[in-house]
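Hi V.,

You were right to ask for the full record rather than a summary. Here it is.
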Amino acid sequence: MFPGIVDIAVVGGGPAGLVAAATAAGFGAGVLLIDENQALGGQLTKQIHKFFGSRGHWAGVRGYKIAARLVEAVQAAGIQVMTDAVAYGIFPDKVLGIATPKGSVSVAAKAIILATGANEKALAFPGWTLPGVMTAGAAQTLANIYRVLPGKRILMVGAGNVGLIVSYQLLQGGAEVVAVVEAQPHIGGYEVHAAKIKSLGVPVLTSHTILKAVGRESVEGAVIAALSSGLPVPGSEKMLEVDTICLAVGLTPAYELAAMAGCRLHFSREAGGWVPEYDATLETGVPGVFVAGDASGVEEASTAMEEGKLAAVAAAKYLGLIAPAAATGRIEAITAGLAELRGRNFSINHKKNDRVWQKIGGRGPKVIVECLEGIPCNPCETACPRGAIKVGRPITNIPAVDLDKCNGCGRCVAACPGQACFVVNLDYAEDTAAISLPWEMLPWPEQGQIVKMVDREGREVCTGRVLRVTNPSANDRTAVVTVAVPKEMAPSARRLARQRQVVEVG
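Predicted structure:
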């Protein structure tokens, strides 16, 4: 049985809601956490990639492990939890209507935090109702929760972070991602995410779109075309043989409960659609009703967790559970952290980084960091035991390497969520260099194996011999593979080709 009235009701058990509930309980609030799924964790439960950010944002930890730790914090706080429960309405006096398998219940709350997340957008085109057309999130759920690949040959529509990350995870599962098409003239996601799939042979086609899905009873192909001024270019149509089409065309905030509570809404293209109006503490125009996470505007999970913390502090202040001065200090600190997470420094310049190669010859193994787009992330800095890598503040700075301090230990190679760190030893042998790089695909290469090496765009540049493969537990399933390559090809060789393309052991 659940009480008829609680201090704070948190709707949504994803990253924002979990952090909000645990934070609010820390102020002594009686908290009820409500989620429509059978288990808490939200989207984190199917995110198998390592997170960006700092240690405080779980950087370098895989999403599903973050979910487990946040759920443990909620359980340790003794928070009352309702799963498999749908909050279907907010009525006067902050009364929540909640549907459960055993019937409907009503709970009155002194404050409400809406962490309802977002819904995936769809895209209509001829054939879009065929079996085999699905959202990227559905494909991710099938692959990472139920361990079932949605298809063998996949077209991804959309090159934001969701499209790029899910494409990589489908490749890890053994699928063939035939292409990623993006209507905009540039990718919307992080360059390091795009680099991972391009180096595995997946073309990322900007200024392209899908025209139609082809098939009788299910998807058998897709017709794509180039775009100019938003319109298909005549004669650019191309038929792709695929059995699955994944749509990663954006998310829209789940604003319905906020609207029922009486919150004013406004449309924001940047935020993903209709969102409730709120102040600097995430309180809406309805006193005691707060929003957090994607419900307040679509962003990253790291941001959602910080917003959950912010909404909880503000709700505790609203209820008088924390002194105003103390609350103000906490709010200012969280707000500053959010500003840092939201920063992004667009400064991709491969030529600038290539000049580093001129400095490492004759100095033994040294790290090269090809994170050339400033994103909120610093695990390379925190992983280095010698302080050779500096990101500093804000964490959107481009990493700088002190070659005098670097001894090529390679800890940063496995730690980097974007797989942008490489250790290069141009002095391995007279005509041979050794490159240590990250690898997360199955099967792993074996010592002595002759492998194809590719550049940033997935083009074969040379072959190499695997010298060793290391995977200590600290790497969390990211192997570090060291390969001997011709010295003159070291600046171009960036990744092993997928093992299906590996040459036999010589």
